[in-house]
């Protein structure tokens, strides 16, 4: 399994759970090598197999290298988790510039398309592969629009949802299932990137379950979709949102 953005948060939790379920794991990271190495060390100490591979998925040459390194170090790919993504400071649209929009959409959409493209080349029956799974990590923001906070991020996740539906149908005959998880209100440091590290505490009373979620809870949904337990599901979304 190759997991993008796996050095911390949801990606790291997914890597650890994947290793528990006997996946060999490629832990992709952009900048935080120490965090990625820590995830790998934890997996190896528990008897699993993992490697850390640096790549900026918004760059095509990095994506190609990421998959080539995964091939070389771990062998045949059976699952891709498109987890990497960015969030920028909360603001309204009239304060956003084109550079911000370019960063958001390149990191949150272009990168996912490129990673899926490389995974297809390896897993599709059409290309001599043995099939596999792609799980996209979207957000409930795709449905709410995230007004007054980050509608650019929400729009990128809406695009990811459309991508999930279209690609699932495109690949259904080729042995690849494509699904997505839409988390929200999860305790991760992405809220600090948005300028409000305590956001979950502020809004938790509006969540039906009256609490924020954990990264492990999101990882459980991802691994279900990545495994044969969900063998009759494609184009499917699991919301991990506390009932919101």
Spell out the blueprint of helices and strands.
Layout: E1 2-3, H1 9-20, E2 25-29, H2 33-45, E3 50-54, H3 60-74, E4 79-82, H4 98-123, E5 132-137, H5 141-144, H6 151-171, E6 176-183, H7 190-193, H8 199-203, H9 215-226, E7 237-240
Parallel strand pairs: 1-2, 1-4, 2-3, 4-5, 5-6, 6-7
Helix pairs in contact: 1-2, 1-9, 3-4, 4-6
List keywords for this structure.
alpha/beta; 9 helices; Rossmann fold; 244 residues; 14% strand; seven-stranded parallel beta sheet
Give, in spatial order, the strands making up the sheet with the most strands: 3-2-1-4-5-6-7
User: Radius of gyration, Cα only, in angstroms?
Assistant: 17 Å
Q: Average pLDDT value?
A: 95
Number of helices: 9
Task: Look at the structure and give the CATH class.
Answer: Alpha Beta
**How many domains make up the 3D coordinates?**
1
- By DSSP, the count of extended strands is 7
Strand content: 5-15%
- State the order of secondary-structure elements, H for helix, E for strand: EHEHEHEHEHHEHHHE
Summarize the main sheet: 7 strands, parallel
Low-pLDDT residue spans? none
- Give the proportion of residues in helices: 40-55%
Say which CATH homologous superfamily is assigned: NAD(P)-binding Rossmann-like Domain
What would CATH call the architecture? Answer: 3-Layer(aba) Sandwich
Structure write-up:
With 244 residues, the protein is an alpha/beta fold. It has a single domain (2-240), classed as NAD(P)-binding Rossmann-like Domain (Rossmann fold). The protein contains nine helices and seven strands, in the order βαβαβαβαβααβαααβ. It has helices at 9-20, 33-45, 60-74, 98-123, 141-144, 151-171, 190-193, 199-203, 215-226; strands spanning 2-3, 25-29, 50-54, 79-82, 132-137, 176-183, 237-240. The chain has a seven-stranded parallel beta sheet with strand order 3-2-1-4-5-6-7, sandwiched between helices. Helix 1 packs parallel to helix 2. The longest helix has 26 residues, at 98-123. The mean pLDDT is 95.
């Amino acid at each position: 399994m190759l997991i993008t953005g796996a050095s911390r948060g949801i990606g790291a939790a997914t890597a650890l759970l994947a290793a528990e379920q006997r996946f060999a794991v490629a832990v992709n990271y952009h900048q935080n090598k120490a965090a990625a190495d820590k995830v790998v060390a934890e997996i190896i100490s528990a008897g699993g197999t993992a490697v850390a591979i640096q790549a900026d998925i918004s760059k095509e040459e990095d994506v190609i290298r990421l998959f080539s390194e995964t091939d070389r170090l771990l062998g045949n790919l059976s699952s891709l988790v498109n987890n990497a993504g960015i969030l920028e400071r909360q603001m309204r649209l009239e304060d956003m510039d084109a550079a911000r929009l370019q960063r958001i959409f390149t990191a949150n959409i272009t990168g996912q398309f490129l990673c899926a493209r490389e995974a297809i080349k390896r897993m599709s029956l059409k290309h001599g592969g043995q099939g596999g799974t792609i799980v996209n990590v979207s957000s409930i923001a795709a449905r709410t629009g995230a007004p007054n906070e980050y509608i650019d991020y929400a729009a990128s996740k809406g695009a990811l949802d459309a991508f999930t539906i279209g690609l699932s149908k495109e690949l259904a005959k080729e042995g690849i299932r494509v699904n997505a998880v839409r988390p929200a209100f999860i305790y991760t440091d992405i809220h600090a990137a948005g300028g409000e590290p305590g956001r979950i505490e502020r809004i938790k009373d509006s969540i039906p379950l009256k609490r924020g979620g954990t990264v492990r809870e999101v990882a459980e949904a991802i691994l279900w979709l990545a495994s044969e337990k969900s063998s009759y599901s494609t184009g499917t979304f699991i919301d991990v949102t506390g009932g919101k």
